[in-house]
Write a structure and sequence with these properties.
This protein has one helix at 240-244, and strands at 5-8, 22-25, 29-31, 37-44, 50-61, 67-70, 82-85, 88-91, 96-103, 112-122, 145-148, 153-162, 168-177, 182-190, 195-204, 210-212, 217-221, 227-233, 247-252, 265-269. The chain is mostly beta strands. The chain has two domains: 5-162, Immunoglobulins (Immunoglobulin-like), CATH 2.60.40.10; 168-269, Sandwich (Immunoglobulin-like), CATH 2.60.40.10. Strands 1-11-2-4-9-7 form a six-stranded mixed β-sheet, with no helix packed on it. Strands 3, 5, 6, 8, 10 and 12 form a six-stranded mixed β-sheet that branches. Strands 15, 16, 17, 19 and 20 form a five-stranded antiparallel β-sheet that branches. The longest helix is centred in the C-terminal third of the chain and has 5 residues, at 240-244.
């Protein structure tokens, strides 16, 4: 599994870069099948002791793919079925704490996907207004950790797939604009589950082999959306003549997992 670490660095004074710096691993908790327990590890990678507090928060995905905070408990909330502890930790430099997460299954729950976010924020009592942020972290399943700095907050999804069906998506169209060098891809989610994976774009090299034209693009579609539009920009190294001959767009649930066994959908187009 490829490990990606995303560092979130806000525009703070130079002195603020030191202090408590929190590493969260993993960035997504997904319960499927008979799974009932999971863990999140918090590690202070900074040079000062920090206190971090965790709480539930509800988000929904907008038509443009962003996350918007909701008031109250969402109809799809996983909060009634999940417990976690501890909710407040103080970590010295290089110290870690495991957060235990338990799923309490109930037979009377309707099939579907239930999800909420757990927000982790720095408890800055001197500047409480800096503890809040509207940002949420939503990364593909293969992203294994995220780093946040002092006076920031992150929210990671906790998901329970109470369903026997599989997640899936269909690539419906691809349109290329030679002026902007952007490929616009329309993806349709089907079923009752979220889509979490990557989009790949290939053409055929002169020797007949498949050639990847861009880095894998993360794709996440929450169950409240039917689909999503993704734009991929090609750099100058990719010739327009090559693109004009046609490309193949593929969706796969895993990073570097494009093969006959894992490709969920593909779309071939002459641009």
């Amino acid at each position: 599994m490829t490990k990606l670490v995303l560092s979130i660095l806000f525009l703070l004074p130079t002195a603020a870069w030191s202090g408590a710096v929190l590493l969260i691993h993993p960035t997504l908790v997904l319960f499927e099948g008979n799974e009932r327990s999971a863990t999140i590890t918090l590690t202070n990678r900074g040079d000062q002791t920090g206190t971090f507090e965790m709480s539930w928060i509800e988000y929904t995905m907008t038509a443009k793919g962003g996350l918007t905070r909701m008031d109250g408990i969402a109809p799809w909330s996983v909060q009634p079925y999940v417990r976690y502890s501890p909710r407040r930790v103080t970590l010295a430099p290089a110290e870690s704490q495991v957060i235990k997460i338990a799923l309490r299954r109930r037979k009377d729950v309707a099939p579907g996907e239930y999800y909420s976010h757990v927000r982790v924020l720095t408890n800055d009592r001197e500047n409480p207004e800096k503890n809040e942020t509207k940002a949420a972290i939503e990364l593909p399943e293969n992203t294994t950790s995220v780093t946040i700095t002092t006076r920031t907050a992150m929210a990671i999804p906790i998901i329970w797939r109470n369903s026997q069906e599989s997640s899936g998506a269909t690539i419906e169209s691809a349109d290329f604009d030679p002026q902007t060098r952007k490929l616009t891809i329309d993806v349709r989610r089907h079923g009752h589950l979220s889509v979490r994976g990557f989009l790949y774009v290939f053409d055929i090299a002169p020797d007949g082999t498949r050639r990847r034209l861009a880095e894998p693009v993360p794709l996440v579609i929450y169950p409240n959306l039917d689909g999503k539009t993704i734009a991929i920009a090609f750099d100058e190294e990719v010739s327009l003549d090559s693109l004009a001959k046609g490309v193949t767009v593929m969706y796969a649930p895993k990073l570097d997992g494009v093969n006959q066994a894992t490709v969920f959908a593909s779309y071939a187009a002459t641009l």
